[in-house]
Amino acid sequence: MDKHEAKRSLTDIMARFTSYAGKRLPTDVLGRLAALRQGEESKLSRVVFDSMFENLAAADNLDRPCCQDTGVIQYFVKAGAGFPLLGELREVLTEAVRRATREAPLRHNAVETFVEKNTGDNTGLRVPWIDWEIVPGDAVEIEVYMAGGGCSLPGAAKVLMPSAGYEGVVQFVFDVVTSYGVNACPPLLVGVGVSTSVETAARLSKLALFRPIGSRNPDPRAAEMEKLLEDGLNEVGIGPQGLSGNCSVMGVHIENSARHPSTIGVGVSTGCWAHRRGSIRIAPDCASYEILSHKEAVL
Fold first, then answer.
1. Pair 115, 156 in one domain
2. Whether residue 162 has a cis bond before it, omega within 30° of 0
3. pTM of the full predicted structure?
4. pLDDT average, residue stretch 167-194
5. How confident is the model at residue 1 (pLDDT cuts 50, 70, 90)?
6. In the chain, which ranges are E strands?
7. Do residue 90 and residue 213 come from a single domain?
8. Are 245 and 188 in contact, with CB atoms under 8 Å apart?
9. Is 154 part of any domain?
10. Burial letters 113-128, b for 16+ CB under 10 A, else e
């Protein structure tokens, strides 16, 4: 196909996939929620989990978003340097959001800062937000993420003195989750970034949310911290929807980088129980694709 047809095909795929990601949770999230429900002992906690699954079934039957707050759309793009529409991706994804907003439909959440006016189509200045990574190859892998206002509220980043050590990282995570986590509709997926500065730690904490739930950091020391944080946050007893229970988090994922010896940057991002993300790999023909996040998904 020519470039115009390829662009139209890519826009159509991303509009449909963006809509799909807002309505149906990824396979790993569904599996984790089911496992957590089995681990709850109180009747109230089990009722809360049951209501979540009833909600998901209704969203599927009605073909509507599984949470009314579909967030400000974010795309995390891992693009092959040889992908033929690399220069057109922003235009493609912006139009995809406009279409998904009409067709899904998605709630209008993009409000221009300072003007304080809703744009009405979920696009605006630098929105949809696009995070770029250029890699070898000619395909593109795109992560769609919808973070509602609640699960964005706990987001925080800070630079610690090196004397705070990794104990300081743990304390920061606990302070954030216990102070604001109930606003994010638990059980939460907690992403932690450990790096040099606030912006690098914050970015890593968001990327941590896209790892498959249950995966571990390849560094055994970081993996151990993930497990300790997960166990400790569950022991706090926030529970589903903050109504107390055994399961406060779906998991804790840490992403890290080398850091300056004089600083420890730490960031925290959270995903709510309706962790709406979707990953798709699109071939250079801009017509063939593979959905990575949702088993047996059909657009």
1. no
2. no
3. 0.95
4. 97
5. confident
6. 74-80, 111-112, 117-118, 129-135, 140-146, 156-160, 188-195, 249-256, 264-271, 276-282, 289-291
7. no
8. no
9. yes
10. eeeeeebebbbbeebb
